[in-house]
């Protein structure tokens, strides 16, 4: 069997000292997460994070920086995830858009409100990513390069 992590993207979006989170149904009940999801076939990382934020929150997201690349596994029985976490800003909210399946609603929460809900965070990466954002950690998007469908003949 070949081991490979699931590639995911996530967005840390801050506005007025509040962070955009989704409340979603999970196998562990209702939990909070950053807008996040899996990289799809024929998609680059920036396209993926824009799509996921739109599908899960009805906000248009513009990535401005890479916060971190995180390899995470809950325990040896669970799959591993390679998570590319971005920060940027949102605009053009569509309150009439139906949110992705499993998403109950969105919230703009302070760090303190998020930490108070620590037991309901989808993973520890939620609070770790917020702390990375607040510490000023940023990497240029130019680090990411996509070479899809290139003819190398």
Overall description:
By secondary structure, the protein is of the alpha+beta class. The chain has one domain (6-21, 31-112, 120-141): Nucleoside Triphosphate Pyrophosphohydrolase (Alpha-Beta Complex). The protein contains three helices and seven strands, in the order ββββαβββαα. Strands 1, 2, 3, 4, 5, 6 and 7 form a seven-stranded mixed sheet that branches. β5 and β6 form a beta hairpin.
Write out key terms for the chains shown:
19% helix; single chain; 153 residues; seven-stranded mixed sheet
Largest sheet: 7 strands, mixed
Count the DSSP helices: 3
Q: How far is it from the N-terminal to the C-terminal residue, by CA?
A: 32 Å
Shape, per Cα inertia axes: globular
Radius of gyration: 16 Å
N-to-C SSE series?
EEEEHEEEHH
Helix % is: 10-25%
Enumerate the spans where pLDDT stays under 50 for 5 or more consecutive residues: none
Number of domains: 1
The first-level CATH class is given as Alpha Beta
Q: What structural class do you assign from the helix and strand content? A: alpha+beta
Second CATH tier, the architecture: Alpha-Beta Complex
Average predicted confidence as pLDDT: 95
What name does the CATH topology carry? Nucleoside Triphosphate Pyrophosphohydrolase
Percent range for β-strand residues? 35-45%
User: CATH superfamily name?
Assistant: Nucleoside Triphosphate Pyrophosphohydrolase
- In total, how many beta strands? 7
């Amino acid at each position: 069997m070949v081991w490979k992590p699931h590639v995911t993207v996530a967005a840390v979006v801050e506005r007025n000292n509040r962070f955009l989170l989704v409340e979603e149904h999970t196998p562990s009940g209702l939990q909070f997460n950053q807008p996040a999801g899996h990289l799809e076939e024929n998609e680059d990382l920036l396209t993926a994070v824009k799509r996921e934020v739109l599908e899960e929150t009805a906000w248009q997201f513009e990535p401005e920086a890479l916060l971190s690349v995180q390899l995470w596994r809950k325990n040896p029985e669970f799959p591993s995830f390679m998570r590319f976490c971005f920060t940027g800003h949102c605009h053009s909210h569509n309150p009439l858009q139906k949110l992705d399946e499993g998403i109950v609603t969105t919230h703009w929460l302070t760090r303190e409100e998020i930490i108070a809900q620590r037991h309901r965070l989808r993973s520890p990466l939620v609070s770790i990513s917020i702390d990375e954002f607040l510490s000023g950690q940023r990497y240029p998007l130019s680090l990411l390069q996509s070479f899809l469908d290139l003819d190398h003949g």
